[in-house]
Amino acid sequence: MANLSEYDTSKTWQAVLASSQRITADSADEVRNLTLHIPDAGFNYQVGQSIGVIVPGPHPFGNNQHLRLYSIAGESIAPNNRGVAFDLCVRRCFYIDEVSGERYPGIASNHLCDAKPGAAIKISGPYGSHFKTPEDNSGNLLMIGTGTGIAPFRAFLKRVYQRHGEWKGQVRLYYGARTGMEMLYRNDKNADLTLYYDQDTFKAFEALSRKPWLGEENAIEQALQHHAQDVWNLMQDDNTFVYLAGLEKISTALDAAMSQAAKSANRWRWLRQEMMEQGRWAELLYS
User: What is the model's pTM?
Assistant: First the structure.
């Protein structure tokens, strides 16, 4: 959840929900692919940025508005080619009160998932530009994500291969999910990631949690530990770029796997800091 005071919401846009498609049809977990249309052509965005969804109040604790950030999951075609359009990948969320044990619906996610095509959605942004494609197509792209963290990678991969054609560097995706149904975040129905499985440079490694109640971070930890040496070796290359997306806990999982592969936690921390300073490290994490 974002704090309104942390982001500039002085400029807002009126979006229209063009379509809403559930992509986890047989799962208790509801994930929807939403296409938002903004008639105003003055709205500009880049793949990898986030938009703020503003839900009018009143809300608990006296808040008049509720803001939640969502990463843009892909580019879309605006109806009649008027204005701009983009996709969001939204998971319907619920929260358990630690004191009372009561279950409460997430404000923004349920607002979006309940909306019908034609509904008005108030947004702000876009914010940031987290995932930039290196200018040199020989760069290695290392993507690590969990859950709906797959959304920005879908858009990023399309941009890499569609705009740059052949990519000579290694492209690796490590993705962890709590259950098998969450693999549908890839949205195979629309052939998103599978388009690139025949690319010589692209490989995806997916893992399911052996203990689903521990969450997606348990799955990504398994995937990283199993391939820790390969990931560590790739990071030794000065032309490798790292992208993290999903739960904040994946940073902890990555730290554990890389400290083991490097045989030194300090050596790993030094390398990570160096990549950050060189602009070869990008994160799009949420709690």
Answer: 0.70
